Amino acid sequence: SLQFDPVGRTQFDERSCDIAKSYLTGNGVSYDNVRLGAGAPAEVRVGARVVVAPQPEGLSDAQRAAAIEAFRLEMDGALEAAGYPDAAAPDAINRPAVIALIAYFVILGAGLYAPLAALLVELFPARIRYTSLSFPYHVGSGWIGGFLPTTAFAIVAATGSIYSGLWYPVIALGLAMAICFFFLPETRGRPIDAA
After folding, report:
1. Chunked in runs of 10, what are the mean pLDDT values of the chain (195 residues)?
2. Which of 56, 60, 120, 144 has its CA 20 to 30 A from that of 11?
């Protein structure tokens, strides 16, 4: 199923395939989707090893939880045997480069706010300026940005590629750029206090 849950209440533990995809996606493991026969439980192949995800139909909540935990433990062992790291190696992180990259993006974001405010103020007449400025900003930041983690996770779970979730912000940015390029009016010479 599509693992899209904006409120975070769904466990995705009602189907064998969902259990496997939730585990792999949650652990940052890329995978390929391959169809099996109807009714067959999901299989995860790690090298030559095959781990079968539990079939939760007909199990009580306690049995389901125990079966999922057993699957997770078996998957942990299979991934460890295949050489997947349990976590990022802190010694391999280039901390100065990471801090510089984050600072660079913070500077770019901060540099965007002044021209953005000026642009939005000039676009709308004074009588509706506050609402007109607030609404698109909060739709963009709150709704489009707010759904980023949920949507990116659903895309990754559907495709199996840990990088495919990046398409959501890329497409949103491309759409925003196209709208700005083709539909934003020129405000030069327009009085900003006009009705």
Report:
1. 80 87 89 86 91 90 92 93 85 93 94 82 81 84 89 92 93 91 83 64
2. 144
Specify whether the CB–CB gap between 44 and 31 falls below 8 A. yes
From the list 51, 61, 6, the residue with the least C-alpha distance to 27 is 51
Which residues fall within 8 angstroms of residue 126, CB to CB, at 6 or more apart?
192, 193, 194, 195
Q: Which DSSP string do the residues of the chain spell out, in sequence order?
A: -----TTS-----SSHHHHHHHHHHHTT---------TTPPPEEEETTEEEEPP--TT--HHHHHHHHHHHHHHHHHHHHHTT--SS--GGG--HHHHHHHHHHHHHHHHHHHHHHHHHHHHHS-GGGHHHHHHHHHHIIIIIIHHTHHHHHHHHHHHH--TTGGGHHHHHHHHHHHHHHHHHPPP-TT--TT--
Question: Which residues are bridge partners to 44 per DSSP?
Answer: 51
**pTM for the whole structure:** 0.75
Which letter, b or e, does each residue of 59-72 get, where b requires 16 or more Cβ atoms within 10 Å of its Cβ?
A: eeeeebeebbeebb
Report the 10 Å Cβ neighbour count for 142. Answer: 10
